[in-house]
Amino acid sequence: MDERTYTADAEPGDHVTVAGWVHEVRDLGGIAFLILRDKSGKIQVKFEKDEMDEDLVETGLNVHRESVISVTGEVEAEDRAPTGVEMLPGSVEVLNEADAELPLDPSGKVDADLSTRLDNRTLDLRKKEVQAIFEIRAEVLRAVRDYFRSIGSTEINTPKIVATGTEGGTELFPITYFGEEAFMNQSPQLFKQLMVGSGLERVFEVGPIFRAEEHNTPRHLNEATMIDFESAFIDHEEAMDVCEGTLKAAYEAVAENCTEELDLLGYDDFETPDGDFPRLTYEEAIERINATGELDEQLVYGDDLSTEAERALGDDVGGHYFITDWPSEIKPFYIQDYEDDPTTSKGFDLMHPRMELVSGGQREHRYGALVEGFEQQGLDPEQFDYYTKMFKYGMPPHAGWAYGVERLIMTMLGLENIREAVLFPRDRQRLSP
Ligand code: ATP
Ligand code: AMO
């Protein structure tokens, strides 16, 4: 194949080969246009029927939409062309012809429902505005990684096949591991904690988690991506500072480096959250929720926050905020309680007005208290011996948290459904593609 030039780089006066997809063919009689699309944009290829080689014109004009072709020819300035330039083809090669009938219209002129789009994700992702979501997702992950590196964290990868549940043994996908029962991991929680006691001290992971939740909601997935952070020698307040810093770094990077993508998604006022995020205690949160009068039933201390409650508070606060000091009984065993008040935990959640984005907290690092916590949650500490025993050999005080990447992208871009933020979502109904 001749060396390929991106359509966006084709300048008047150049002789180039471009390659991509047939976006559209418009035959106007004596003159016809083929619009070729590649990752960088589109270019108009002009066919003048009376002046050009008949086979060439025939090839160019009979090719089905979305076929893959390459075109070699001269680039000329042309004001009437959509991008101000057009190509006069010397040769056209059809690299792979597409079927005449497509299951989905990549030009987006014909709307498709989400299910059809997900069944045909390859075609769906030929739409610029769909691509934009994944460019932004990639930029968020880049920014987050840079941010973590700037504060001295080491990226780790922990096992996804495990012997025990990490979040308490429920909602696990069982698998068979050489004849033994095993599970898909729900969270890197216990592994990342083990790493703060290693010489690494401060770690992060970006990876998949698996939850056999029966939910079928616009904000739950059965396979999601989590950004986990854990650090030795910090408390829950400092962990919240890092959590807030990570979110702002992600938003700033998108605002700065994804202007084209934001345009495609229709944002002219993309805002980076600024100012310190309010930190409400759980008690303050339920008082405020009750005071909105939005709920049918008043919340009482100890209740988990329903979706309606989260919404009511989100509307009231109007931006990102933390909920701290959760009742110990609704937070997992690995979260530490206040010394002077064992019914209150040092766990926190970061909330977007629409939903929870992060859970985290100061961890229980004292062996005795940790084992007690397992028992209180009805878990057999012996099953978790690989984890608990390390707390006997020098485990520093530590804290951490985890974001769900898809929820971060969903709330950042105002997407209606979390599945829009995943290439190939796994949900109750969907196991392929
Ligand atoms: P030209 O003199 O530029 O070759 P034409 O008058 O010979 O144009 P027509 O077949 O009359 O060509 O054009 C049909 C339509 O296509 C007209 O509306 C014309 O404005 C438009 N058109 C012609 N050339 C271009 C071009 N290079 N890019 C976009 N539109 C064009
Ligand atoms: P938690 O279970 O709250 O905490 O998960 C952390 C964040 O991950 C996202 N998330 C999900 N996103 C989509 N679909 C799901 N099914 C799903 N489940 C979770 C949410 C949630 O806030 N080990 C702790 C974290 C920690 O303490 O460090 C944990 O897993 O955005």
From TrEMBL:
Pfam families found in the cross-reference section: tRNA-synt_2, tRNA_anti-codon
GO terms (BP aspect): aspartyl-tRNA aminoacylation
Organism the protein comes from: Halarchaeum nitratireducens
Keyword Metal-binding belongs to the record: yes
Cofactor notes: Binds 3 Mg(2+) cations per subunit. The strongest magnesium site (Mg1) is bound to the beta- and gamma-phosphates of ATP and four water molecules complete its coordination sphere.
Listed GO MF terms: aspartate-tRNA ligase activity; aspartate-tRNA(Asn) ligase activity; ATP binding; magnesium ion binding; RNA binding
Subcellular localization(s) per the UniProt record: Cytoplasm
Superkingdom of this protein's organism: Archaea
A cellular component annotation (GO) from this entry: cytosol
Binding partners and assembly: Homodimer.
Known EC number: 6.1.1.23
Location (main, coarse): cytoplasm
Name this protein carries in UniProt: Aspartate--tRNA(Asp/Asn) ligase
Ranges where the Aminoacyl-transfer RNA synthetases class-II family profile domain occurs: 134-433
Amino acids binding ATP: 211-213, 219-221, 356, 404-407
